[in-house]
């Protein structure tokens, strides 16, 4: 399988940047870091290969916010030391190893649902959800141009942290590959 960043026409190809070499040639991916430089299709293909799938937006958010509607996986107030956001105040100037912030875990024990990398979701993005959506385990529209990403990343500055809490969502072209977007496998 060749990821979007590894295809001949990819802009990253010229620089040698891909999930195997996230900082260019000779910079191997750290096995304990999130996989980055994967498009939505790459993330979906990986999940299928592992016997899973990308989570829906509703599943992702439930994992992050629990059943009590908290703003952050750990509670109601933002706490810089519980997630990897902009700057080195949290101990990391860029990507952090998976699980580096155990005090930021969700009520279900899921880690890294705030900061570090934006995570692809299975759903197409819509600015407004159609009125006929089910109240239990809703999904996005059947078609669209952008996919949903959740969670924020290490590039989110403190002044934006509140905006990128787990309830927030962003639209991203499914072909995009960046150093701050990754995936989570749902089983």
Plain-language structure description:
With 187 residues, the protein is mostly loops. It has 4 helices and 4 strands, in the order H-H-H-E-E-H-E-E. The protein is globular, with a radius of gyration of 16 Å. The mean pLDDT is 87.
For the sheet with most strands, the description reads: 4 strands, mixed
Cα separation of the termini: 21 Å
Shape: globular
The poorly predicted ranges are none
Mean pLDDT across every amino acid position: 87
| Approximate strand percentage | 5-15%
Strand/helix succession: HHHEEHEE
How many E strands? 4
Per DSSP, the total helix count is 4
Task: Please state the structural category.
Answer: little secondary structure
Which value, in Å, is the CA radius of gyration? 16 Å
- Read across the widest sheet, the strand sequence of neighbours is 3-2-1-4
> Helix proportion of residues, in percent?
10-25%
Task: Describe this protein with a few key phrases.
187 residues, little secondary structure, 4 strands
Secondary structure: elements and pairs:
Blueprint: H1 11-15, H2 40-49, H3 57-65, E1 118-124, E2 147-150, H4 158-161, E3 170-172, E4 181-182
Parallel strand pairs: 1-4
Antiparallel strand pairs: 1-2, 2-3
Task: Summarize the model shown.
It is built from four helices and four strands. 15% of the residues lie in helices and 9% in strands.
């Amino acid at each position: 399988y060749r990821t979007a960043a590894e295809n001949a026409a990819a802009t990253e190809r010229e620089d040698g940047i891909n999930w195997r070499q996230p900082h260019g040639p000779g910079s191997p991916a750290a096995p304990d870091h999130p996989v980055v430089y994967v498009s939505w299709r790459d993330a979906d293909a990986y999940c299928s290969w592992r016997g899973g799938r990308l989570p829906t937006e509703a599943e992702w958010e439930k994992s992050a916010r629990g059943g009590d509607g908290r703003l952050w996986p750990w509670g109601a107030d933002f706490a810089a030391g519980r997630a990897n956001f902009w700057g080195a105040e949290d101990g990391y100037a860029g990507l952090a190893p998976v699980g580096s912030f155990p005090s930021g875990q969700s009520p279900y024990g899921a880690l890294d649902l705030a900061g570090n990398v934006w995570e692809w979701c299975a759903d197409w993005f819509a600015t407004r959800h159609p009125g006929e959506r089910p109240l239990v385990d809703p999904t996005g529209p059947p078609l669209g141009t952008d996919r949903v990403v959740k969670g924020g990343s290490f590039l989110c500055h403190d002044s934006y942290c509140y905006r990128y809490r787990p309830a927030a969502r962003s639209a991203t072209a499914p072909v995009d590959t960046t150093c701050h977007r990754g995936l989570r496998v749902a089983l």
